[in-house]
From TrEMBL:
Residues 10-53 have a biased composition (Basic residues). Residues 21-53 form the SAP domain. This is SAP domain-containing protein. Residues 1-53 are annotated as: Disordered. Transmembrane segments: none annotated. It comes from viral metagenome. InterPro entries: SAP_dom, SAP_dom_sf.
Length: 53
């Protein structure tokens, strides 16, 4: 089964490290970070890292 690039977020779904929440979009991340009172600028991966802190 092939994923459309839109679905895969631009990257193939092969190299997945750790638990990446499939349903998390950058917008969602920003909302969660804002709730925690953290900075909401940066790439999606950056936001994810910040969320785990």
């Amino acid at each position: 089964m092939t994923l459309s690039p839109a679905l895969a977020g631009g990257r193939r779904r092969t190299r997945r490290h750790g638990k990446v929440h499939a349903g998390l979009k950058a917008k969602t991340l920003k909302r969660m970070l804002k709730a925690k009172g953290k900075k909401t600028t940066g790439k999606k991966s950056t936001l994810l890292k910040r969320l785990k802190e």
